[in-house]
Amino acid sequence: MGPDEYDVFLSYAGDDREQARALEDALRGAKVRGRPLRVFRDERSIGHHESITRKITEGVLRSAVLLAYYSRAYPTRPACQLELTFAFLLAQRSRTVRGRLLVVNPEDGSDHIEPVELRDLKYRRPPASEPERRRFAEEVAERVAALSGPLGAAASAEPPHWWPGEPLPDREAVHRYAELWRLHSALHAGTSALVAPGPRMGVAVVSGLPGSGKTTLAAQYAQEFAAAFPGGVHSFALDPEKTSPDLLLDYRRLVRDMAVATGIPLAGVPDDRLLPHVAAHFRGRAEPALWIVDQLPAGISDATVRELLIPSRYVRTILTCQEDRFTDLGGPVRLGGLTEAEGLALLRDAYGPGEEAEAAALVRDLSGHPHDLRMAGAELRTGRGMISLAEYRHQVAGTADSVLADILRELDIPAWTVLGLASFLAPAPLPRALLSRAAALLHGWSRQETQERLLPALESLTRRCLVAAAGECVSVHARVLRAVPEPARRGCLPAAARAVAEHLTAPEPGPEVVAHARHLVTLKDLPADVAETLLSSLATLDERSSPLTARLRERHGDDDPRTRTALLLVTVADYISARTPLPRGRVVHMAAAAVAGLVAGLVIFELTRIGGRGLSVAAGAVAGMAGVMVARIRNRSSPPAEVKLTFVVDDESRDVAWKLFVEITTRVSTQPLNDDEGLTREALSSLYGLFATVRDTLKAGRPSVPNGGRTVEQLAIAMLNQELRPFLSKWHPRLREFEQAHPDTPEPAWPGNAACRVELRQVQGRIQDYAKEFGELAGVSG
Q: What pLDDT is stored for residue 492 in this prediction?
């Protein structure tokens, strides 16, 4: 080893300086080949007046291994990424990534580590004690002793050539390191044991909305990873407005221009042999080259795209397009929004002290879209002192991208329906089942017709990158929603709200449904009856007042009926949800009834100031929740078998009891189902419908007034919460999962079928007991 060479290049973020010093001290105490390890650490190895980039480059070239202290701060530091990228490319060229890159990960997970190849290495946890640090240093010394020469031994003697020329660096561009590494991994998939299997062609497809940074990412990758391509970097910008024949003619002309400039002989080579001839040239050089084909036109055929590729394993190709396609050709790199930190970098110098929270909110408003954030930053810098960030955010909320607006205007009715419904819902994943129900309510479509119309629409929207799929949900970029034409939004708000209200009645509504309900109740144009239904449902789900009522107060004021209803409902929900251990005994029952009556009385007194339908809905919820509170306390303080029921009955209660009695006794859910008869799905669907019907019946009627006995509301809520909800929460998702995984398999083959039917019979027996009690309340004998 020469005097200017190092054994270890220690790479770390400034936040981890103390940990890095401790590792350095331990490393310097270890020996290799009879001498102490030589460690390069920038803080003590770079002079104050030296070029940091040049010194770091030389330090990596002259080091045997790079040791990265890979905290969550590490990938956010450009200097760290420069060091890691340079070392990784050198090691990859010599096929010694496993031997020359060492990772210490102080975090619980590894999702922050890029590239993905480094996650496959056996990274170490930070040594916590002095003996552990000594053992760690000895292991590093053993690794160094097994290597021959520094990382720079694999460096190319000359920098790669560029065509049509090396681009000027974009000083304003944000370095999206995670995406850059994903792009690198996609290009090299299938060529290394460290990379997930992939196509041998070495193709990566970068897709995203207009302005999402596809061209910028490809250019950044070419500049920062150029050392991986000694065969050169070649970039071809297509005209996205041209069709396939003209597009291919232009492309072949560009390839011939490139060949003349770089010395590839193509004289006399026909067009149909052009790309194979270029491939033979790169094969002869046996050096990796980068090939960028930018701006594939929308709707371009797969066959045409294949005619753009160089058939050589030495050529790595980046394709950029607005459509999420061609994944059979190469690895996908889908561009979404920037992170908050990346977005704020584009807004630097665009806001003043104290506006940090507003700036972060603007990044969220624009969903981290790079083009929109650049435009916002430029406009805010120009208008400093004349417009505040809050005012600018209000302006942005009403603007739409003209390019996207033109694209959306060309969509068909089902695609408009998806975007129109999404435009009124929360910025949260949208369950496909919820979307389907809302579309059916909007257009009056049958279930089959909804599926036949929405499935192609979702496929088309996903392919165009207008919608992103995520499991059973889809999400729509905020930039797209701002461009939804007004005709696509007509009638969507009440349909979306009613679909959400229906899904809230499920035994276990998902968090996405709850998020959409919270959002909908704040919209000014939401029909009052739907708003009140959503509010009462949220209250019975133990929703808390802080976030919901704060938004209602902000939008509508304290005197708005929705705000006052929400405050009252969630207040009672808080009382009901309180779980304080209580002793057994009759005194507890009396105290519980007194508390419930007191709360209900105070709330109903306040409710009389709301009036209208809000009074009926909220009062029904109050009475029902007060009943739940008493039932919970009684159930904790004595077994159900010891409780002797006394009912409070008036004419309206009898009417409700009669409806529930008829509903229960005539459904399949209460009819015997032997092991060899009927379908479990039919029984579960019937129970599911019963759950919704009982809740709707309770909300539609006037509440009973508690008077020392058990009301019909208490009995019904007990049946829902103690029988239907637990059973459906357990078995409905399991059967649905089986049906989705095995759509053509008969139900008896479901492994849980027998156990489900056993529990179903038990639940049916207990529901029959409830039916008898409803019959007694209604005045029907046995």
A: 95
